[in-house]
Amino acid sequence: RMVAAVLAGLSLLSLLTCGYLAWGSRRGGAGEAPGNLLGEEPAAGAPRSQPHIIFILADDQGFRDVGYHGSEIRTPTLDKLAAEGVKLENYYVQPMCTPSRSQLITGKYQIHTGLQHSIIRPTQPNCLPLDNVTLPQKLKEVGYSTHMVGKWHLGFYRRECMPTQRGFDSFFGSLLGSGDYYTHFKCDSPGICGYDLYENDNAAWDHDNGIYSTQMYTQKVQQILASHDPRKPIFLYIAYQAVHSPLQAPGRYFEHYRSINNINRRRYAAMLACLDEAIHNVTLALRKYGYYENSIIIYSSDNGGQPMAGGSNWPLRGSKGTYWEGGIRAVGFVHSPLLKNKGSVCKELVHITDWFPTLITLAEGQIDEDIQLDGYDVWETISEGRRSPRVDILHNIDPIYTKAKNGSWAAGYGIWNTAIQSAIRVNHWKLLTGNPGYSDWVPPQAFSNAGPNRWHNERVSWSAGKTVWLFNITADPYERVDLSARHPDVVKQLLRRLSQFNRTAVPVRYPPKDPRSNPKLNGGVWGPWFKEDDKKKKPDKSKGANKQKKSKNKKKAN
């Protein structure tokens, strides 16, 4: 009897063990929870110290273009998530796509990666330098599954530059900066056109079903969450294409915005409404599949809005592509059950580089001493309302941007050449030099007519020869009162700080376009074109050419 009882006990234990292993290895489809069919959270005793990290990056969303900033565009999901979390109201990004994405994923300023000029173009043999450790790579070291859905825009000219080679277990999305939301085609110039939708390292032709990208990316996120074990930490980077041009949206999202006469603003509003709904569906999936209670959701725009493409940064000055506040001050918030001060507003200084050390620390990872980061761990600042460790931000130094005609070393007190485009923030002060870019204030009335209208804009009358501006951003967030003449000592201090940063800069990486990048040479697809074999062939050709030259010279000598 004892033997029978022991055998029965072992049999039961075996069944339980097999059942547990089967639960852990099961892979459900979209809309089906793996094992946890009721969407219940893991048991209290389950390990849950490493939080699930969901980083949502919107593209070209203007500062005003969220309900809680007074927009006429309805964003109920964003409003609710932000209201229940922590709104970041002194939060900065970079003025364009590639710079913001590179700083998010490395924790470094552009001057320290060589990407300080413009963006990475589709035809350039350029990408985020391979010697930079990335955020997903650090999270993988401590057991995270890492997945990216959406827009990459950090270069792809060689296979080693692809997302799956930079730390992501899976990638589904586009490599370029923009493209058609339905066909996923992109023309960089006349005749240079190709398909741009990838699954991991291959063109995703099977997914070319005419589905709007915002909805398609959301479906992919739901599939990832459904097939992952929620007891194991996951990093999910969702970089939506919306609301970047071209301005396209499914018809039903226009219903609430037919009263907007300006066609670009109306389309933009529909795109943002669709994006808001998509984020609602992502949060529903987090709850359904058992991730939510141990998750951190971060929402950010990558840069300011583009008024000519429907975006609004009012009441901030300037737009995307500029170093005025309208180009770099972003919509951002953190939503998480793990926050201590829920329902609060953070007015401390936070920059996009700060996510790298903040998230690695939360994930119980290690930051190598030899990595020279520009970001700070700001979790206690966000979660507990403590002072930010950050006191300054180098917005950028771009040595090859069009020089300001009247800039000089003399205008920079012999400390700095003010012809160079640069911008820096130290405490309350912000300094700009060179040509900061389009500087109008674009109020909501500018979108009242059927076409683009600048009559309502507040134009700026430039004083002759001006290449230095100083603002107290805390007192004057709209950059209306230039204080450079009134506070020359502050100008000098900030110019010295610029000079200090510049001494640490690496050379700019901005190569000319490579004709081998043409998708026609790659099966009609945008993708890696540079191969190591190309490098090996070149020396052979040059050797052959040298031999021919030598033989010709010998003949001449004879």
TrEMBL record:
Keyword flag Glycoprotein:
yes
Record keywords, A-Z: Calcium, Glycoprotein, Hydrolase, Metal-binding, Signal
Q: Which domain of life is it from?
A: Eukaryota
Pfam families, alphabetized: Sulfatase
* InterPro entries the UniProt entry points to: Alkaline_phosphatase_core_sf, ARSB, Sulfatase_CS, Sulfatase_N
Q: Where is this region: Disordered?
A: 506-558
**Family named by the database record:** Belongs to the sulfatase family.
Please state what the protein is called.
ARSJ Arylsulfatase
What is the primary gene name for this protein? Arsj
